[in-house]
Amino acid sequence: MDTLNIKSVLGNNIILREDARNIIHYIKENNIKVLDFQGVDFVSRSFADEIYSYTKNNAISIINTNEVIDKMFRAVQHTHNNGRQIINNIEILPVNSDEELSKLLLAY
Q1: CB-based burial of residue 51 (10 Å sphere; 0-12 exposed, 13-18 middle, 19+ buried)?
Q2: Which residues contact 12 (CB under 8 A, 6 or more apart)?
Q3: pLDDT single digits (tens) 33-59
Q4: Range of 17's domain?
Q5: What pairing do the DSSP bridges indicate for beta strands 34-36 and 3-5?
Q6: What is d(CA 38, CA 17) in angstroms, rounded to the nearest whole number?
Q7: How many domains does the chain have?
Q8: Which of 2, 77, 80, 92 would bridge 33 by S-S if both were Cys, CB 3.0 to 4.6 A apart?
């Protein structure tokens, strides 16, 4: 077997990084070359990150992804290629009550 249908193993909404690690273990043990996402509606960024990190260096294809999953993998790929953006110039404003918070948020 060289194709793994992800939905048949994990369902249609996949959120755990541990699920990705289990899939990677299965890939290694069963010589999987294609991950088929047919019927999967959503994957979390942590799941996508684990899968992307492994597949990019191991000749594993990802097929039948929907728009949501495509965007998640592109976001992960972008982070891998460009690094994380660190913002150092964030102003921290003191807020002592719900009323102060409301006023602050309404000001923006």
Answers
A1: buried
A2: 39, 40, 41, 42
A3: 999 999 999 999 999 999 999 999 999
A4: 3-106
A5: parallel
A6: 20
A7: 1
A8: 2
